[in-house]
What does this fold into?
Amino acid sequence: MFNMKYEKEINRRRTFAIISHPDAGKTTLTEKLLLFGGAIQVAGAVKSNKIKKHATSDFMEIERQRGISVATSVMSFEYKDVLINLLDTPGHKDFAEDTYRTLTAVDSVILVIDSVNGVEAQTRRLMEVCRMRDTPVIVFVNKLDRDGKYPFDLMDEIEKELNISLHPLSWPINMGKEFKGVYNLYDKSLQLFTANQKATEDNTVPIPDLSDKMLDEKVGERDANQLREDVELLEGVYGDLDTDAYLKGKIAPVFFGSAVNNFGVKELLDTFIHIAPVPQGRETDKRHVAPDEDKFTGFIFKIHANLDPRHRDRIAFMRVCSGRFSRNTFFKHTRLDKEVRFSNPYSFLARDKDVIEEAFPGDVVGLFDTGVFKIGDTLTEGEMLQFTGIPTFSPEIFKELVNKDPMKTKQMEKGIRQLTDEGVAQLFTQHGGNRKIIGCVGELQFEVIQYRLLQEYGASCAFTPLSFYKACWMTGDKKAIEDFARFKQANIMEDKDGNLVYLAQSEWFLNTEIQNNPKIEFHTTSEFKTAMAK
Ligand code: G4P
It folds into this structure.
């Protein structure tokens, strides 16, 4: 069953995402990493695909961004013989669910924190998702060229707020105007700060022994002594990095730097390729799939619609989990129990959409989709299994979909089904009825739906706000659920897979139902990992 012939391919791959609160420096860091990988030649080549914070209702901007984000969805590059797949995540909070799904396709993340702002709202939410899967995290504290928080305080804040133990691998010498550089605790060298450092420049001075007078020469006596004191403290507290604990998601190594100045980025990348996990296995509904299995498996974690409204084809992003994916080969689409093959699968190497012949675990392949895929779909060489761990979270905002043009009912139904397959929003249909409720994380998504239904399907719609608090999936005693569904008819919907969902009006209502129905478990994610406390 296991085939060592792919071992080399697997071991040279690293698949990860950079996550951050908007404006912490994700785009800038991405660009610098790509420069190191030679994937781009000049700075400024990676367009920020974030939607500016103030543009909360500018859906034309979203359309424009959608074009950009196909190109930057996956960025693959080679660095020191390691093939790195960097998966992009949308910055805007209204598209958080897209980010959560992308995180199911990576093996580790780099978390960027702004040294001035510290831990911010979205940092917290993203880390919660990483914690659900014990994803290994490396922290990059950015913008050391600005007067930020004192590094020990910042470390404390990150540990407390994100509930993870940190392990600094570099340490800054001052910050802001006084920023002189970082000391690399891992290979015991001093990196002197210069603004706008070129990828080829190297300002590294090996200082294996901190009592070396060279340190005083380089940074001045006062700062040299401060560094000696800090490092003594750090080494006493942290010792050597426990790589196993990092790989288990328990300890996060920390680097300090300034992305815009390309400072501290090379150290981050060098350590990353050294310690970050190689492609890992994934759970399915039947068994664990290991990457070095002989037979191919993969799953769809993202679907991107074509920007041209005349063409309904879409791009499905598939992560290869095991074996070897190859072009023009029949694979099993397990949800539909159907054989499918792809004549033009493409890779994302060096920004070109090149047709590829084969792909290995950790790779992401773009597949042209004429509408057969939903998020979470699985492809195999015949085995009937389905990858799990791609949960749907309860939306935050609920609105009823109103069809404004009865002549276009069919187009509307088709459009909303396809858009929700893509994961733009969640669709709930009245149990035993026809009412349609759309659930989203943010208001922007409703605008996207309205706009795209009209542009792509010719269907015009409106939304009526509904005051629901959460969507809850239910497990437990079948009869109790049936009775509950009958009793609470007005609040019972079906999700796209036909699962019953209870829409609670408020936290109080939900808690009351939890108490009144001890035989039913209520869950705010569709994968039932987080049953609500009773
Ligand atoms: P994001 O993708 O996480 O949203 O952040 P992005 O990289 O777009 O960076 C947000 C802003 O922070 C940008 O400035 C960027 O230049 C700046 N920045 C990134 N790294 C550093 C750093 O190390 N030090 C300092 N001082 N600033 C940094 P902007 O004015 O919003 O955009 P731009 O016009 O400079 O591109």
Notes: Residues 20, 22-28, 48, 50, 91, 142-143, 145-146, 258-261 surround guanosine-5',3'-tetraphosphate (CB under 6 Å).
